[in-house]
Recover the amino acids of this structure.
């Protein structure tokens, strides 16, 4: 006799309750699916990678990729080491005032799969032809604390 859908759900819930399931952990590698659509996104730590159709107004094409252009996040801390694995086949656009562009980072697209690497977060593979907008998570700063206090 085959189990009904509800039986399968109940059994799965029991396995979860017993801890008999695969755990999702930070730092595991991920790959954007080829079926990802405009607006789909993924996170690599505090770096948001969003599928887009074209760069926003105010972005300029990087004419000649240099090693520093592989870095997707400004700064020198370990947390800012989000980098492309290679410039091969990559077309990149950056905000005109990069790296002082607030929460907006580079846009890139490549003719072959590229990997966004990081020493502690899992690497993220981006399929060939997918245009990606990099944005940054806002830090909880003094301005946000003031906004929160005003809202309360």
């Amino acid at each position: 006799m085959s189990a009904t859908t509800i039986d399968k759900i109940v059994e799965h819930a029991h396995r979860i309750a017993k801890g008999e399931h695969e755990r999702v952990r930070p730092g595991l590698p991920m790959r954007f699916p080829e079926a990802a659509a405009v607006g789909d996104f993924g996170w690599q730590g505090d770096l948001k990678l969003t599928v887009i159709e074209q760069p926003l107004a105010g972005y300029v094409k990087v004419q000649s990729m240099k090693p520093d252009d592989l870095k997707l996040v400004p700064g020198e801390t370990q947390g800012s080491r989000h980098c492309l694995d290679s410039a091969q086949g990559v077309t990149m656009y950056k905000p005109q005032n990069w790296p002082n562009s607030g929460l907006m980072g580079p846009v890139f697209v490549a003719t072959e799969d590229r990997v966004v690497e990081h020493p502690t977060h899992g690497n993220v593979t981006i399929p060939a032809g997918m245009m990606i907008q990099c944005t940054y998570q806002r830090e909880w700063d003094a301005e946000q604390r003031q906004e929160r206090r005003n809202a309360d």
Summary: Residues 26-138 form one domain. The chain has one domain: 26-138. Residues 31 and 125 are 5 Å apart (CA to CA). The chain has a mean pLDDT of 85.
